[in-house]
Amino acid sequence: MPVLRHIDLAVLALALPVFLVAGWPMLGYGAGAVAWLGQRALQHWTTAKADATDDPKKVAGIMTGSLIGRGWLAALVIFGAGMIENDAGLAAAVLVVVLFTVYFTASMILRPFERTTPRQLS
């Protein structure tokens, strides 16, 4: 199952030859890759930070801030690519939507198999 957990990264790698062969803007691929990898790194960091605390309010704040911040990060990178080259912004947006769809589907498939330990309430 570890492969399925990172299938979005495999799709990102497979998208590179598709962009090259199809002649799509490489700025779009680069912007989409930066947006996706940046938000995934931010997600990893904030999840680790939330796991390190026992305060439910702090966990909710960290995860909510992460969700909003990651969305803004991706949107601004895509918008920036679109400001440079219109087709690149569209290509980046489509790439990020495809990656999100793959990531979300894989996470829903893996959800029942994840082992979580319930936190003790104090």
From TrEMBL:
Keywords, comma-separated and alphabetical: Membrane, Transmembrane, Transmembrane helix
Residue spans crossing the bilayer: 12-38, 59-84, 90-110
Protein name in the entry: Unannotated protein
